[in-house]
Amino acid sequence: MSLTITCPVCGKRDGYEFRFGGEDKGPRPEEDSLTPQTWCEYVHLNKSVAGVQKEWWVHKDGCGSWFTIYRNTVMNVEVQESEACR
Amino acid sequence: MVEIKRYSPVSFKASPKRTEIRDNFTVVLEYEGEGQQPFDPSNSKDNYIVDLSHITRFDVQSSNLDDITPFGIKIPQGLCESYLQDSVLINRMNRVQASIFCLPVKKDESSKECQFDFQCSCDSDCKCDPKKSSAYTETTEVGMCMAIFGKNTFSITEKLTSLDFLDPVKKTPFLYQGPMSHIPCQIITLSRDGAKSGIIFTASRGYGKDMTHAIMDAGAEFGLKPAGEDRFKSWAGSL
């Protein structure tokens, strides 16, 4: 068991119980000024940080909650638990 | 009039000795060779698995679970806490959901009649109406439910899941929502007291056959054997 993730409902669990939901890219772009280019960048482009990044995860084998954590992508460890835990 | 028939998704390689029809399910009360004596925790070395897929189960959803008292019982406030009173087991799944199991506990009592009492803890002039803000879903048909109990319960579960049922921080009964045999389950640990140890768990109905196979295989070295509902009642009554 390398990666453990802290679910806001179930607590610290084996990383294999979760599914990765992508980088947290912030809120959707405003519809009014939305261009195909902006939308394409929002959907498809990732920062792929080598270090700590905020990401979405879902507890697929457990309670089914969606939440964000901060993970060090180099070490593959959770460095800060979900904001929902606080 | 058409008679419906309901089938449990679980079946064991054992011959039923006594059965009864309840809520259109054929409920096995005792299997051949499971032993004549009732479950005695002080003297038991045996481990049993019981199919409880016929027991009535509900999910309740509300934005304000604290104001709802199904069967007159308050829903536990802490996440993943459970509460067993008489024959009703209530498990807090998350902030807005709880699951309810109507267990067959006493020898002379079948599943409890379904009746919901709504009580609001606010002042008398409040405007909230838990009846309107909550929803009950019967989940009996959609899932399988089994119990494993006996001295080696957690030696068996250790072969099936990485969940830590003996975590000293948790107080029984408590709920785990996690994988067992790689299947998402709700697992309630009812007791960790030696030969009285036992769990109840539910999963999606379609996994019934394969989970039974995996559990029986894991429990073979501990002499895990199928038992009828009567043995479950005598175990649950001893808690």
Query: Given the C-alpha coordinates, what overall shape of chain A results?
Result: globular
> What's the CATH C level of chain A?
Alpha Beta
**SSE order of chain A, as H and E?**
EEEHEEE
Percent range for helical residues of chain A? 10-25%
SS element count, helices of chain A: 1
The major beta sheet of chain A can be summarized as: 4 strands, antiparallel
Largest sheet of chain B: 6 strands, mixed
Entry summary:
By secondary structure, chain A is mainly beta. Chain A has one helix spanning 36-44, and strands at residues 4-7, 11-14, 19-23, 52-58, 66-72, 77-80. Chain A is globular and about 40 Å long.
Describe the structure.
The complex is a heterodimer of chains A (86) and B (239). Chain A is mainly β and 86 residues long. Chain A has one domain (4-85): 2-Layer Sandwich (Folate-binding fold). Chain A has one helix at 36-44; strands at 4-7, 11-14, 19-23, 52-58, 66-72, 77-80. A four-stranded antiparallel sheet of chain A has the order 3-4-5-6, with no helix packed on it. Chain A is globular, with a radius of gyration of 14 Å. The two termini of chain A are 25 Å apart. The model of chain A has no long low-confidence stretch (mean pLDDT 91). Chain B has 239 residues and is mainly beta. Chain B has two domains: 16-54 and 141-237, Gyrase A, domain 2 (2-Layer Sandwich), CATH 3.30.1360; 57-138. Chain B contains four helices and 15 strands. Chain B has helices at 130-133, 153-158, 208-219, 229-237; strands at residues 16-22, 25-31, 47-51, 57-62, 68-70, 82-85, 88-92, 97-102, 116-118, 134-138, 143-150, 174-180, 183-191, 198-204, 224-227. In chain B, strands 12-13-14-11-3-15 form a six-stranded mixed sheet. Chain B is globular. Chain B starts with 15 loop residues before the first strand and ends with a helix. At the A-B interface, strand 2 of A face strand 12 of B.
